[in-house]
Write a structure and sequence with these properties.
alpha/beta, Cobalt-precorrin-4 Transmethylase, domain 1, Rossmann fold, 5-stranded mixed sheet, 14 helices
Amino acid sequence: MEKTYFRSGLGLKKEVAGALQGDYHSQIVDLLRDRDYTLTAGGLTFRLAKEFGFCYGVDRAVDYAYQTSTKFPDRRVFLVGEIIHNPHVNEKLERKGITILRPGEDGKFDYSEVTKEDVVIIPAFGVTVRDWQVLRDIGCVLIDTTCGSVLNVWKRVEQYARDGYTALIHGKYLHEEAKATASQVTRYDAGKYIIVRDMVEAEVVCDYIEGRCEADLIDRRFAHATSPDFSAARDLQRIGVANQTTMLARESLEIAHRVGRAMSARHGETALPDHFRSFDTICSATQERQDAILELIEEPLDVMIVIGGYNSSNTNHLAKICTAKVTTYHISDASCIDLERGTIRYKPVGADAEDERAEWLSGAKVIGITAGASTPNNKIGEAIERTLRSRGIALPAA
C-alpha cells in the first residue's frame, strides 16, 4: 500500500542539496560570517545581525518541497498557499511545476481540482483542521512541512480547549498560521478562541475583564477574530494565552503578563490558576533574530536594511524594532535599490504600500543589515552588492 503521509522528509536530502545550494547560497554572506559579520569596502561598512534569514523550520519546508518535486516527477504537485512568505522562493517552486493553491475571497481553499493521485504540500504555517480533513478525505499524498514551533503552539491551545479555557492568541487573524492555530480548538465542542493583534487590543480585552466595559463591546469589536458563537460574558471567564510564532516576542510576553494581572484583579490571586494559564510558546528562531537585531542597533549605525517579503510577519517585526532606533528600509529584495535613479523603494513600518526615497545613502558610512526568517542568503548578498554598486564600489576579494 502506498504511503500517503510524509512528515520526516522523503529520503532525498542529498539529492536536492546541490539545487538548494545553487538557488539560495551567497558567497557574500559567507564572507561576512568569516569577518565577524562585518564587511568594509570603499568607505562603506556593513554589519550583519548574527542571527538572520532562513530559520530551521523554513529551511526544512523548502528542502521538503524540493524533495517532493524530485520524488514525484510524474504527478501533479500542489502547495496549500505559499510555502513561506518570500515571493522568490515561491516562484522557484512554481518553476519546478508546483501549483500554488490560492485562497478565495472568503479566505478558504478550494480543493475540487485535487485528486487521489495528486501530491499536496502543507506549508510551514500549517493548515486549518478543516483543510487537513478535506485533504485526508481526498486520499492524496500529503507532504507536511508544518514547523515544529507551530505544532508546539497547537498542543497548547488544544490543551486549553480540552480543559475549558478560551485560547487568547496574540496574532494576526488573517495570517495562515493564526488561522491554523485558532482552528485547533475546534477539535473540542466547547473550544473557543479570541485573537488580539497587539497590546492595544489586549488592553481592550483587559478593560472588560477588569469591569471597565461591557461584554457586547468585546463581541462587536472582535467579531472577525473570535470562534463561532463567541460570547465574552461566557468565554472570558477562563483564559489561556498563546501566540503566533512570528509576532514580537516581547509583546507576546507583555500581553500574557497583562492578561494575567487582569484575571488576578477579577478573580483574586488564589483563584488565578483556575482562571488563567500561560505557557512560553515563543519560537526560539524568532526570539534569536529579534535579540540579534536589538544587539546590532545598539552599535552606531547610519542606516538599517531589513530584507524580506512585505507579507512576512517576522520581517515586519524586525523592521519595527529597528525603526525605533535608526533610519530603516524594509525592502522585499535588492531590486528595490534603483541604481540609475539613486532611490530605494521600501515599505515604511505600519504602511500598506511602498514609499520611495532619493539619496537614501547620503552621508551613510555604517549600514546594518538583516533578513526575515523566510529570506534566503542570496537575497541578502544581492542587496549588499547592489548597495555597493549604487556608490560605485566593487566587492572586496574573499
